[in-house]
């Protein structure tokens, strides 16, 4: 679990091995504000590498087993509450070949149903919608109220055994947390609160329910959903995939922790990568943090006597002051700068503090070689003003460029670098001489933890 790290100036030392978590905690000791207890938590995984059969990423039989063992039985994020703000608003949530309707059936009630007519099985809805007063099947006209109760059967006399009790739309369990709506098709599933465990405590300071969906981009990728999400669960890939960021990101000095059904990584920013042979200037660190191209002017000049980390935190704090007022002073530098990214099993990735990112990864139909990657931006809005409407989803095809979604800003370039690799990973998995992949003891903690949970669910009877 210990990693060879660098000294304070970014050069390799012979002082031996120290844990990345210890280094991050030492960085917090230098913060300009009190650091919240949640960032002081340390819960490392047991040391040891994890080996996973390569076929888990491309086998149709394993995909089918995932549907039965995971997608039909686990809590999964379906949408944001603001996606369905008014009575009758609904979204269609698809996972593999399963489809569900998630609807606001009353001002304070959200329900979810299997998205299929109980007559001949035709999907009731194919697209999201607003203000529905009923769900009428386009095939023969059978109709249900938005609370799932049977409303009308065309030629009712011809179906003497059809009744409301037996033909109420089959319902699935619904839970909410942080402004997100979760569903679970398993009627015997544990409550959402029990499944999430201590996750709400981690987000007490960063209440995601008080954010609005500023952007939502979905892209179809030519790789398995696990290949895609694992590329976003560690900072180990930065040195090779995002070299332009190395001056300002402590990639291999990240802290990784595991907690029940979720895990966390914290990657420090405004500090150089331990992979660099020489110490970058403070200005180079600042420019790297904002992924500045060399042919564009710097965002700002680091003042004499300040570090890039201190200056970047000051800039972020003042920028946030326009939104949350003097409450901005109650947050520490790390909350403004560092990448604090969680993974909730199986496919939900909310980020902490003021980073706006939330990811979701899911299969694209029943093709184990394709998936859907989604990135949402959740942002606070000025106090006293009405909550802005949720951004609609912006779909990108497998051959589209992330830059076709300008709402992503500088992340589009980073995503292009990531998604250049992962379709080639999918191909390579099928031609590997060794029949397994191997995950690092510490740097790939979150992936190891995911596979521990994955194996547990896949083995459940």
Question: How do you describe this structure in short?
Answer:
With 461 residues, the protein is of the alpha+beta class.
Q: How would you characterize this protein structure?
A:
It contains 13 helices and 21 strands. With 461 residues, the chain is an alpha+beta fold. The strands form six sheets. It has a six-stranded antiparallel β-sheet with strand order 4-12-11-7-6-5, with no helix packed on it. A five-stranded mixed β-sheet has the order 17-18-19-13-20. It folds into two domains: 14-58 and 199-459, Naphthalene 1,2-dioxygenase Alpha Subunit, Chain A, domain 1, CATH 3.90.380; 76-188, 3-layer Sandwich (Rieske Iron-sulfur Protein), CATH 2.102.10. 24% of the residues lie in helices and 26% in strands. Strand 18 and strand 19 form a beta hairpin. The radius of gyration is 24 Å and the shape is globular. The two termini are 33 Å apart. Its cofactor is Fe cation. Residues 75-183 form the Rieske domain. It comes from Tepidiforma thermophila (strain KCTC 52669 / CGMCC 1.13589 / G233). Keywords: 2Fe-2S, Iron, Iron-sulfur, Metal-binding, Oxidoreductase.
